[in-house]
Amino acid sequence: MAAHEHEAMDAYSHAITTAAERAGPAVVKVETGRGGQRNRRPQQGIGSGVIYSSEGYILTNAHVVAGTSRVHVTLPDGRNLPAGVIGAHPERDLAVLRVGQAGLPVAELNAAPLRVGQLVVAIGNPYGLDFTVTAGVVSALNRSLPLDRSTTLGQLIQTDTPINPGNSGGPLVDVQGRVVGITTAILPFAQGLGFAIPASSALDVIGKLTEAHRQGISRGALGISGLDVPIDTAVQRALTLDQSSGVLLLEVAPGGAAARASLHSGDIILSMGDRTTDTVEALRQAVQSLKGRSPWPVSFLRAGRRRRVALVPA
Questions:
Q1: Domain finish residue from 213, 228, 249
Q2: Which of 185, 213, 241 is the C-terminal boundary of a domain?
Q3: Which of 39, 197, 210, 312 is 20 to 30 A removed from 173 (C-alpha atoms)?
Q4: What is the pLDDT along the chain (314 residues), one digit of tens a residue?
């Protein structure tokens, strides 16, 4: 191989490794579960996602989390965290998740126009193979692809980057490691035909979903969003708790009932009234049972200590 060919290969390899090193720490595996019927095992699914906010917000495909009863994400460092679905936009095949962990590495979404022939890199979990990197080029722009009889995805990026089941929801990045698309679909039995939702569409959906979510929180009786989380066994023993999980507060709306009771994001609700709140559904049922009464006694964990407050509902 001639010297100039070696240099070209080195430049190509450097571009791919740079992109992977910059975006890789923000890519997560998304694992979902659906409750099984009697005598049937629960169904499980695997996809990918990308952290776009250090506050724990994650972008993935709507079809990855559709109909799921539980979602967990695995970070590149091996941590496995429960995640809540903030919102989904099936017509754009995008969804926003959130985990109760701040200070996470993020990837930048870049909505600048792409060029056909531009080098791009996909990072994801094809077939459950964690954090796999593949490379290719932008083959075409503004493609349309039917998802089903009623939904067609438009303005898609077509790429020859190898994309397989499990890549769905993962990022397609440029050589600077910026997210230019979210991988969404492949054509079965057609090699070299993958598609991604452009970052411009993703940014639009993120804004709409997070705003709708916040408005919903503000209208709720408590003014919170949360998700089920396990309680550390050492904390259970130290506090002699008879429950192994609670509801982690992801968001507390300013001026809402929870905020007025001095509850904070990161608190774990243990009980409300005389009901144990080991799941979000149990918390909803507790709220229903307490309607018409006030104040509501709330027990919660903060920094490993059990605390109690009286909450006056909205």
A1: 213
A2: 213
A3: 210
A4: 555 555 655 888 899 999 999 999 999 999 987 654 444 444 578 899 999 999 899 999 999 998 887 899 999 999 999 998 989 999 899 999 999 888 999 999 999 999 999 999 999 988 777 889 999 999 999 999 887 777 788 899 999 998 888 889 999 999 999 999 999 977 666 677 899 999 999 999 999 998 888 777 767 788 898 888 888 888 889 999 999 899 999 888 888 899 999 999 889 999 998 899 998 889 989 888 888 777 899 999 998 899 999 998 86
Sign for the pseudo-dihedral over CA of 119, 136, 195, 54: negative
Residue whose structure tokens are 């962990």: 101
pTM of the model: 0.81
In this structure, the chain runs to a length of 314
Judge if 34 and 126 occupy the same domain: yes
Phi, psi of 241 (to 5 degrees): -80, 145
CA distances from residue 16 to 197, 233, 255, 283 in whole angstroms, order as listed: 21, 43, 47, 47
Instruction: Return d(Cα 159, Cα 71) in angstroms, integer.
Output: 29
d(CA 298, CA 212): 27
Task: Based on the fold, state whether residues 10 and 99 are members of the same structural domain.
Answer: yes
Range of the domain at 111: 1-213
Active-site residues, by number, are: 63, 93, 168
* One domain for residues 298 and 267: yes
How far is it, in rounded angstroms, from Cα 92 to Cα 232? 38
Sign of the CA dihedral with 208 first, then 214, 215, and 217 last: positive
Are 232 and 91 within one domain? Answer: no
Q: What is the CATH number of the domain that holds 279?
A: 2.30.42.10
Q: Are residues 28 and 91 in the same domain?
A: yes
